[in-house]
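Researcher: Batch entry, complex prediction.
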Amino acid sequence: MIGHSEHEHHPKLQHHFYSMEQQLEASILGMWVFLVTEVMFFGGLFMAYLVYRTAYPTAWAKSSEELNVYMGALNTAVLICSSLTMALAVRAAQVGSRRGQIVNLILTIIFGSTFLVVKYFEYAQKFEHHLVPGPHFGPSPPLPYGSQIFFALYFIMTGIHALHMVAGIVLMSVILVMAWRGRFSPAYYGPVEISGLYWHFVDIVWIFLFPLLYLLGFNQPPLG
Amino acid sequence: MSTAHVITPVRTYVTVFALLLVCTGLTVFVAKQDFGFLNTAVALTIACFKATLVIWFFMAVRYNTPLTKVVVVSGFAWLLILFGLGMSDYLSRPWIGVLGR
Amino acid sequence: MHQSATTTARRSYLDAPYGVASWLLTRDHKRIAVLYLISITIMFTLGALFAAAVRTELLTPKGDFLTADLYNKMFTMHGVTMVFFFLVPSIPATLGNFLMPIMCGTKDLAFPRINLLSWYLYVIGGVIVLAVAISGGLDTGWTFYTPYSSMSSTTNVTLAALGVFVAGFSSILTGFNFIVTVHRMRAPGLTWFRLPLFVWAQYATSIVMILGTPVIAITVVLMAVERALHLGIFDPRVGGDPVLFQHLFWFYSHPAVYIMILPGMGVISELVAAISRKQIFGYGFVAFSSLAIAVIGFLVWGHHLFLSSQSIYAGLVFSFISMLVAVPSAVKTFNWAATMYKGSVSWDSPTYFVLGFMGLFTIGGLTGLYLATMGMDIALHDTYFVVAHFHYIMVGGAVMAFMGGLHFWWPKMFGRMYPEALAKTCAILIFVGFNLTFFPQFILGYLGMPRRYYSYPDELQVWNVLSTAGASILGLGYLLPMIYLTYSAFKGAQAPDNPWGAKGLEWTTTSPPPTFNFDEPVVVDEPAYNYRPHGEVHVG
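Model: Structure tokens for the complex:
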């Protein structure tokens, strides 16, 4: 059983696996186990959010109004587009289309970078309005007690998310180079698939961040 | 269960994509209305639905082994432990009637 | 017992390939286990030195050996080093790494390069902690409570947080490797219920590592960010809650203690079966109890927060569930005892460690019930009773099990026998030294001596002196094996393939094993611990 299978010994089959199928299955399981750790990592932040929102509902609603819903929604749409192109890139690898992989991976990277650019502008706006928590926190008109915590969580949650996006873009660039060199085929596309899993996960985190951070005060009339 | 990966048609991906965009628009629209505490519940429900779409279709979990599905669910279930038992503290503090939060 | 060609130079994982680079770039799980063993021993020694400083200060009622600040740093560094850099990785990264693929009948773990990465992360984390020690130490307590750690402490908290973060990542990678290996790489015929209980225990431990460690990672990130940028998350002046830090910290750190003890229980299961030459009583119950401990262990963290502003209603829930978590541990202890009953118990050195474990773990576990009772904890919290409780479990339990396992599998790992008489002496020294160190601490806690204090009332001195005396004996008990085990790895008598006559896949291969573990592909067709006592026919 060990070392022999109905497939030829694929050059990418590692010695401790007995088939490409086992290797791929193990990689996917492994990536999901890793993503579970990421769920728990972000989970701590969502717990902090939950605790403080329960404590300061007014501060949360008022602070949320300071965030630009349209930029947030745009970013959500951008990430959803990137998930589509990512899924298409994996599919292209599965059917052996080198062009499909390259085009979709490039698009994914472009969408991811767009997200980060929009984020940059959002952050710049926060700095201008003195909404960065710490010694220089000073929104005018003043926000309710607890707003500083909202913005602390806003920056930490979106910041750590953005770091994961950067890592994702770096990862996709590596996969792009490999795809360019024709490394993937219907028999061997594991790296594309598991990188895709990571990318989709980062998208899912944003799917939850968007309503929780941006949409709380959206039904209130704008501040005077 | 065979793990030979089924190739999802492009049309499926595009349909899911469109659905995700619609849901995003819906979330923004609902947020503009005032449903009181339901606002959050609706927003989170839609977010969970979107996440499920991504996990089931884009991440192809529907073709994965039962074990992988258990792993996916357990990650989110563990969050519920953190939230649930943790909030049991904060939510029951006022019951004591002592000064403080 | 096997007679193997041990007189001729067999190529085992130890000698092929040769050279320092081949070790530092290895993908062989057995070599990685040895690398871990070396680095863990270094961190253990460091932690022991910090403990020595603490116990020396406590010889006298006044604070006269160390300044108050220095004392804070000593117990903090002792805790950080021992918890994160010794106890959490010890059995999983050494014995686990070595044995898991072999016990699963396969060539290596699922992700060998990631295994090597986990060791490098551990080393980096260790170097960071050394840097912290050299640059003035840490004084927040190993628990890093806010707001002291995030606002007031002048020590290098951020660097220490980074060290813990990196070590946590190392832990996650180990756990993730084990989970995938057990699920996807078992040899043909090796069904779940034919697996050794050591594998079940490591698997349960890995679940805890995966689900718990990320939470402490984000917690120390939050604390470090708070410290650097003063964002306010744990700052009461702007509405932050320091108790939130405690919730998040203990959400990991309580399950972490199960990370520390579950592998030890797995070791004890293996040793008990081998020394009794008998199938483990209630194999299924022991297997499931590991999973039960892993899961229930996540539901009890609030018992560390009884004296914070945590709601007493939440405290009641946590207290009750904490009682429940003792049940699976008790199941194991009864089953081990039932295994040994009417077994053919040998009196080799591993037996000494097993008996030591069972007595000390029982005491430690039972005293945990006192602390889980919310009302009693009001009197016992932050006293030496707590210190004694967790040292009974961690040192009397986990480290005893680690020592037992190390001795039991040493011949397999290095192909050499250690001096048996010395090993028995060491086990007795450790047992005596341990009890002398920590039993007086139960009394001290009962009498009200707070932990983390460097001075105490004069009438408590006798107990403290006994404790320090015990610590010196204990230190000797740990020093001895460092010497004789190391010596025996190079110069000990050649070991046969199965010196204990034990059942298990690891005993079917050579001592030490070849690089790919088995000369023939493994097929399993019998249950675990398939001993045949007194000529009875064992029904598989």
